[in-house]
Amino acid sequence: MRPGRSRYRRGRRPDSDESGSRITLPTRPPEPPMRQVGKRLVLAVAVLLATTLIVWLDRSGYNDNSDGTVDLLDAAYYATVTLSTTGYGDVTPVSDGARLTNILVITPLRVVFLIILVGTTLEVLTERTRQQWRIGRWRDTVREHVVVIGYGTKGRHAVATLLGQGVERSEIVIVDPQAKVIEQAAMDGLVGVQGDATRTETLLRAELPTASRVVVAPERDDTSVLVTLTARHVDCAS
Questions:
Q1: What is the CATH number of the domain that holds 187?
Q2: How many domains does the chain have?
Q3: Is pTM beyond 0.70 here?
Q4: Which residues span the domain enclosing 83?
Q5: What angle do CA 211, 214, 218 make, to 5 degrees?
Q6: Phi, psi angles (nearest 5°) of residue 93
Q7: 73, containing H or E segment
Q8: What is the pLDDT of residues 181-232, one digit of tens each?
Q9: Is residue 209 part of a domain?
Q10: CB 176 within 8 A of CB 185
C-alpha cells in the first residue's frame, strides 16, 4: 500500500488524544535515580568548594564581625550561607575587589547552586519541551516510511526483515496499543505510536497517508482484518 498525501494532514495534530493514542520517539535508557542524585550532589559540592576557595583567596577583603579575620572555616561558612540563602551578615565583603567578586562570580555560582537543587523539576520541563519539539519536527519531515502495526512476535520479525533489507530504523514507525511495547520499541531506536490501530486517528498519528508501506502484524487474525479495513479507509480518503 502506497498512500498519497491525505486531506487529513490539514492542521497539526496533538501528541496524544482522548483515545489514549500518543507518539513516542526513540530514547536512551534512563539513568538510575541514585546516579542522577549522585551527579547533582557532586556538582553542588564542587560549586561550594569553588566558592569557598574564591572567598579564602580574597580573605583580606572580607570581615568577620566576631574577630575581624577570615580563615578557611569562615570562608566555607560564608560560601555555604551565601549559596543557600542571602547570608546572615556576620561575614561580609568590605573591599571593592571582594564586592566585585561577589557580583561577577559568587552570585552566578549561587544561581548555579540553586539550579542544581531544583534540577529535577527543570529537567522534567526541559525534556517535555524538547520531546514536543522533536515530535513536531518528526511530523514535518517524515515521508516514505514504513508503518508496522503490532510489535509482538510477528511485528518484531517484520522489523528485523525490514532492517535486513536496508531500511533505516528512523524510517520505521511502530503502532501498538500497549505502553510497555511502545517503550520497548523506542528503546530499540524506533518511533512508536501507542493506540488502537483500528481507529483512524491512531493511523493518522502514525502519518500513514505519507507512508510507503504498511505491515499489518497483530497477534490476532480478527484484529488484522479490522486494521486492514481501517488502513484501506485512510488510504482511500487520501
A1: 3.40.50.720
A2: 2
A3: no
A4: 33-119
A5: 140
A6: -75, 130
A7: helix 72-84
A8: 999 999 999 999 999 999 999 999 999 999 999 999 998 889 999 999 999 9
A9: yes
A10: yes
